[in-house]
Amino acid sequence: MRIIVCKDYDEMSQKAAAIVIKELILNPEMNIGLATGSSPIGLYKNLIDAYEKKIISFKDVSTFNLDEYVGIERTHPQSYYSFMYENLFKYIDIQEENINIPDNDLSRIDELSTDYDKRLLGKQRDIQILGIGKNGHIGFNEPGASLSNETFITELNEQTRIDNSRFFGSLEDVPKFAITMGIKNIMYAKKIVMIASGESKAKVINEAFNGAITTEVPASILQLHPDLVLIVDEEAASKIENIDFLNRL
Ligand code: GLP
């Protein structure tokens, strides 16, 4: 794995964007796996900037989002569908038909996971962007989720609902369920770029990369990925032990 320690959130965002921009210049038809949350917003701003400067185009790019809440409409301001349009898609030339976000239509609940797996089939992501939850979740693979899962509907962990209540105003308004790519889907990406910033992520980042590979810390499975780049600010990196050793793995 490669660990890049940055001085702050802005530098982390620039470094992550540089990896995506380089790949996109080499491969204009790339498939990219996208994440939500506060972590990738700066990265998306950098991508929009590069698009506006005509350095890159998303005309032939396909995107695959990790997850979506179940129990709110897609039009809800806090849905990940809304998040992606507000923070990236409405500013760039991506084609609507190339955007893939897990559907959360309750009337089709039994088909949603297999439908998303069909969309993912044969579309290996060239880069998968990942954040990490304080409890080690990736996408919405909460502690205890099977490492062999493909897309599935999951109940959200209490810690995750508390963390995400900052976007909803109150805990009661945070959905209790979500649909997410499984670990198996995530691991299938050619390259994984994880970004994390702030002191609140420091403990889990160390557990994920220096601890045992365990379903209790879902991100720990990434230790087995052949092309993993971890981009962290100084605060999120502050508890990583053996950083030089990890960088040589
Ligand atoms: C959510 C998302 C994750 C994300 C995590 C961390 O729960 N499902 O994909 O990585 O939050 O979010 P943040 O970047 O806001 O800390």
Keywords:
249 residues, alpha/beta, Rossmann fold, seven-stranded parallel β-sheet, three-stranded antiparallel β-sheet, 10 strands, 33% helix, binds 2-amino-2-deoxy-6-O-phosphono-alpha-D-glucopyranose
CATH structural architecture? 3-Layer(aba) Sandwich
Record field, number of beta strands: 10
Give the class-level CATH name: Alpha Beta
Mean pLDDT reading: 97
State the secondary-structure class: alpha/beta
Topology order in helix (H) and strand (E) letters: EHEHEEHEHEEHEHEHEHH
What's the shape? Answer: globular
Strand content: 15-25%
Question: Unreliable runs, pLDDT <50, ≥5 residues?
Answer: none
Bound molecules: 2-amino-2-deoxy-6-O-phosphono-alpha-D-glucopyranose
The rounded Rg comes to: 17 Å
Please give the alpha-carbon distance between the first and last residues.
6 Å
Strand order of the largest sheet: 1-10-9-6-2-3-5
Helix content: 25-40%
Most strands sheet = 7 strands, parallel
**Integer tally of domains:** 1
In the CATH hierarchy, the third-tier topology is known as Rossmann fold
* Helical stretch tally: 9
